[in-house]
Amino acid sequence: MCVNSNFWCEYISHESETTAGLTRIRLMAKYASMVVEGDSMAPTYNAGDWLAGRWARYKLTGAHRIKVGNVIVIEREEQPGIFYVKRVTQTRTSGGHMPTIYVSSDNPAGTDSRQWGWIPITSVRAKIWFRFKRA
Predict the structure, then answer these.
(1) Considering the entire predicted model, what is its pTM?
(2) What superfamily would CATH give domain 2-6+35-133?
(3) Which own/partner contact pairs does 94-100 have at CB distance under 8 Å and 24+ positions apart?
């Protein structure tokens, strides 16, 4: 399932450049809303649903924040600019190597790590918190 992202900070981009305004923009840029496209996460999330989450680029130090069961947004190196919503089903760390995750679609017909294999943690772009508007 792909998503169209819409940074909340776009809505406040015309705010005055006061100290409070800059703080607010910096804080808001961490959070995002996105619209679901496709049915790979159905029945949990359906096309047209709006999701809220927090954007982040996970590095080696952030790997501990991603846990089995989390719903995340990934951007695969092979398809830059295309974002997928998936559920983490396994995590793997091995010595000094890059942590990797195995992701699944809630819909058995969806495309996920069964086709892609293990995904590097650096492909995680956001962690989804909740759906705030149904299609």
Answers:
(1) 0.75
(2) Umud Fragment, subunit A (2.10.109.10)
(3) 98/60, 98/122, 99/60, 99/63
Structure tokens at 10: 């776009």
Domain boundary assignment for the chain: 2-6+35-133
Provide CB contacts within 8 A for 50, sequence distance 6+. Answer: 33, 34, 35, 36, 131, 132, 133
Match 């607010």 to its residue by tokens: 24
With contact defined as beta carbons under 8 Å apart, do 102 and 119 qualify? Answer: yes
- CA–CA separation, 59 and 95 (whole Å): 15
81-92 pLDDT tens trace: 899 999 999 998
